[in-house]
Write a structure and sequence with these properties.
The structure is a single chain. The chain is an all-beta fold. The chain is built from no helices and 7 strands. The chain has a 5-stranded antiparallel beta sheet, with no helix packed on it. Strand 4 and strand 5 form a beta hairpin. The chain is elongated and about 50 Å long. The chain starts with a strand and ends in a 5-residue tail after the last strand. 21% of the residues are buried.
Length: 107
């Protein structure tokens, strides 16, 4: 799965975070949890091509996963979840609720 964020102009950032979706499947109570992906690659459009700047790695079902990286200025950001690297209970899906990005502050 790929999520593309397009900015109205050059944007400088050094961190990205994903708030994960909550699966409240009452029929399968052990699976009621945040759907934290196992791996999401962060790619920025730099000099006309996407370059990987960081990797988010989910080790447990948490509400937020974030990563910092060397500052980049870009007009587009991609979040790429490799095949079958979603939450362990549903690896084929990417369940997120919100994405944040910024420079020098934040969670």
């Amino acid at each position: 799965h790929t999520i593309l964020l397009k900015f109205p102009g050059p944007t400088t950032l050094d961190r990205v975070g994903i708030y994960w979706g909550w699966n409240d499947n009452l029929n399968y109570q052990p699976y009621a949890m945040y759907m934290t992906s196992q791996v999401v690659n962060i790619e920025a459009l730099i000099n006309g091509s996407f370059q990987q700047v960081a990797t988010l790695t989910g080790t447990s079902a948490v509400a937020l996963t974030s990563v910092t990286f060397p500052e980049v200025t870009t007009t587009q950001l991609r979040l790429v979840q490799p095949s079958m690297k979603g939450a362990p209970t549903y690896p084929e899906n990417m369940w997120l609720s919100e994405v944040y990005y910024n420079k020098g502050f934040g969670p």
